[in-house]
Design goal:
Layout: E1 5-10, E2 19-24, E3 27-33, E4 40-43, H1 56-71
Antiparallel strand pairs: 1-2, 2-3, 3-4
Length: 73
């Protein structure tokens, strides 16, 4: 069953710049940040230890959305 992917722009206390958090359902899948002046994508493990299995097209759409919301491109 596919879960909805969402993007939130946040200001975590351990970052100087805003980040885009990408969630699948209620679990964080990745974070797009620009701490050193370039975009970096960090992936998070699933809490239950299982592998992420996501729709390729939905992942591309979420990443594009995150980039647009974070840097306006």
């Amino acid at each position: 069953m596919a879960q909805k992917m969402s993007v939130s722009i946040t200001s975590p206390p351990d970052r100087e710049k805003l980040v885009a958090e990408i969630n699948v359902g209620n679990e964080q899948w990745a974070e797009l940040n620009q701490e050193d002046g370039t975009l970096k994508l960090e992936f998070y493990p699933r809490p239950n230890g299982e592998f992420w299995q996501l729709s390729f097209d939905e992942v591309l759409e979420a990443l594009d959305n995150a980039k647009k919301r974070l840097v306006g491109e």
